[in-house]
Structure formats: C-alpha cells, structure tokens
C-alpha cells in the first residue's frame, strides 16, 4: 500500500508548524521561558548521563563474554532506537517517492491528462482506501519487521556466546536451553520471563544468553499474533478498493 503524497505532505507540514509554534511560545516568548529552557537543558543532560552509564555497564558485560566486541555490538544495534527511527524514516520516504511517481504518471491533473474515464473520482476512491487506517497498518508492518530483526540479532548474538564458551559441557547446556525454549514456544506460542525461569539449569546459563532467548521468543510471539491481523487488513482494504471502483463504474450519473 502506498501513501498519498499530498496527505502525507499536509500531515508533515501541520506537525512541523505545531512544533515550531509550540517551541516559540514556550522557549521564546513564554512568561517562564527561562525556566523552561533550563528544564530542557537539564533533561538533555540527564538523558545523556543515563545513556553513558547504561552503555558503560552494557559494554562491560559484553566484554566479559569473550566474544568479538565489534561483531556482538553490530548485531546488538540492529534494533536500537536510532536505527529504528532510521528504518521508519527510510520506509516513509520511499513510500512517498513511489506514490509521487505513480500519481504523476496516472493522475497528472496539472496537464489535464486523466487516463481514467471516471474523471478524478477514481483517484478520490483510491485516496480514501489508501489512507483509511493507513497509520495503524504502517505501524504494525514496521513493528513486525523490527521484531523479526530482533529475533535474528538475538540468534546471532547467542551463537557468538556459545562459540566463546570454554567447555563442551557448557556449550551443550546452552544448546539444550535453546531447544527447551523452542519446544515450549512451539507448543504454547507464547513466552515470558516466568516461563524461562522454570527451565533446567536456568541459574547456570549466561545472563545475556537468557536475555537474548527471552527477547527472541517474545519477538516471535508478537509476530505470530500480529501478522494475521496485518494480512487481514490488507486484504480487506484491497477488496474495498476493487469493489468501490467496480461499483462506481457501473453507476449511471446522467
């Protein structure tokens, strides 16, 4: 499903205008603007310090695993907040470019070249069917894609953890832990922290390995739940669009 370029441009412009107006009223001309500025700077500093502390602890724990630090970090950042934002922006930009090209080719109003006999009404039908529940469908599709990436990255990280273990017994124990998790998920199609804590040798498994297993199957559970919903939404939308256009063509407006 492609986005309507005009509608998306309007939404972006409205959001930009709202943010600009709010920032001016709060930080530039507000009665308590100095207080708001100080609070804003304080929040930035707090977020930065928290970010640095969190990553210091995280990097220290990764180095204890005896894995290749750069490789592990590469997969760990697959679904980091900045990359998530980048994926989403890239998705929307490509969506806009595709739709703009499509609409320019098929509905060039500026030159008066409407290739459809129904005037611009079919364009409006497509416009309506495309934007109906567009944001919800886009977010579901985006989250499903991220969850699949998360499951993949967790698998890759756990493979590195197992490869870095010292003894065959430890490796076998971690492999068995993974098999137990897979068997449980296959049977119940759900996974949570309480479940994983009941597995054998839970306390002896590397904490980051356990965390990756938990994130992996939580991601798969989300995907299994949301993918049918997404497919149903797309099929319903395509059905409505085809039905509306066909019914419109059958009508006599004279």
Question: What does this entry look like structurally?
Answer:
By secondary structure, the protein is an all-alpha fold. It folds into two domains: 29-64; 68-249, no CATH class. Helix content is 78%, strand content 2%. It has nine helices and two strands. The protein has a two-stranded antiparallel sheet with strand order 1-2. Strand 1 and strand 2 (113-114) form a beta hairpin. Helix 6 packs antiparallel against helix 9 and helix 7 runs parallel beside helix 9 (207-250). The longest helix has 44 residues, at 207-250. The protein is flat and about 85 Å long. It starts with a helix and ends with a helix. Mean pLDDT is 81; it is low at 110-114. The chain crosses the membrane at residues 34-54.
Task: Provide a concise account of the structure shown.
Keywords: Membrane, Transmembrane, Transmembrane helix. The chain has two domains: 36 residues; 182 residues, no CATH class.
